[in-house]
Amino acid sequence: MKKIISTEKKPIKMWLDDIEENTLGQAKNLANLPFVFKHIAIMPDSHYGYGMPIGGIMATQKVIVPNAVGSDIGCGMCAVKTSLTKIDTETLKKIMGEIRQAVPVGFKKHNEEQSYSLMPDFSGIKIDRPIIYEGFDNALKSLGTLGSGNHFIEIQKGSDGFIWIMIHSGSRNLGLQVAKHYNQKAIEINEKYFSSVAKEQELAFLPLDSKEGDSYVKEMNYCVEFALVNRELMMERVKNIFWHILGKESVPIGFAPMINIAHNYAVLENHCSTCIDNQSNDNPLHELLSDDETVSKAQDSLNGYRPFVHSCGGLLLKKEDSVLKISPSLIDALEQMTHMFYSLTQGPALKHNHLSSLNLCECESFSEIDKALNISENKFGLGFSHLFGVEKDYRKWDRILGRIFLGFSAYKINCRINKDTHSISQVMVHRKGATKATEDTVGIIPGSQGTKSYIVQGKGNPDSFNSCSHGAGRKMGRKQAQRELNLEEEIKKLDEQGIIHGIRGIKQLDEAPGSYKDIDEVMANQTDLAEIKVELTPLGCIKG
Which of 96, 291, 493, 534 has the smallest set of CB atoms within 10 Å of its CB? Predict the structure, then answer.
């Protein structure tokens, strides 16, 4: 996180240094809404949107805000790793040529309806005159189409050595119609009941327990499912093209399971205000410790492991289904870290340390270990304060040390252990141009067609409501880009990298690399939200 703005009713937590004045104004409008839970989170790719900034996350209580979801409901990314390790330019051009024939782009759609069986099931949507019914026939022809604007199909080379396929697309016109209809309903309801939310802010809301709120949630979820099916169908057709062209050359090819992540939606989630407050209070000391060389040395050996007291009285270190073998170098690193605490003016009072009690596990059954861990948790919590002999502020240091070695999952575990004293709320998390980034979520953060994209692993940061950015984010409006960017320079940037692209005239400058923020800076600003697993370099890009 880069900064916190505390001038409004709720804090605004920001993962960028520079934000446009109009975008900041929208964030402040959000922070003053009466139903906001804890704070507003603004991602490093954030820019101006309708009502709520794109790249914003807002958790609300008892209401949903259509403009905080966005008009392209369910828009998102998918990516597939192929078994190919290289692809020559001529073959790539053939593949891209066939993709253009198979996948309509822009405002185009299929001449014929696609298979009805591919559409998401709507039998459970029991509402009067749903918007998705009215748009169903059009959706059947739009299924498997890319759309316009920033939507794309890109062939990439991964830092893992493999060729990847990536697609960015949404719910086509179906999501737009649902968004428009329910935003208008929200405006009417807010006016009828004298809502304190100003109409000009474009943040009209629907109560979740209202007929309209319930209907919007159901239709929104349908659009999220439709957007996924749309991406899946395009991906299958692109894979078939790879098979068709490379099969003629007798090149074997396989495909890994598809990664999918949406970035325009709202969903009910449980979030703990106690954990969010604890993290905010822990941040200064965590930063102080993280900068210390002795801590880094201990992290290298102990990362991901939890200490706990075994029935024999000794301490064990467990990570998933393994128990760490204790080495002299690990003991040395941990003892150095213990001594370092004494030099901290704000450090814990250490009565003794238990490093000499560390034992190898002699249990044959991991069920015995898990049982011992559960018993240990009830008495020692995460176990880190016990390991290092912390006596004063035991619980606080248990969290901070846990965060050093376990990441943000320390708060999740701490919350589970202390659930009776923690304040957990079910809230509606709106992610508009933002993606889920829990620790078990593999996500996708695209750049522009001239920069790298990334496969990432979430870190589960409570401050961002377990979210991260959805891309590079625009730094220029479309018309501005067409006016101000130099056509020859933008083409040259792509040509020099050997990227096959479709920029031919001023009209395409709205999607030129120069119209987007620096993806390297965006990624650097969110290292506490997501970890890069694979870097993807563009080879060829088809824009909507």
Answer: 291
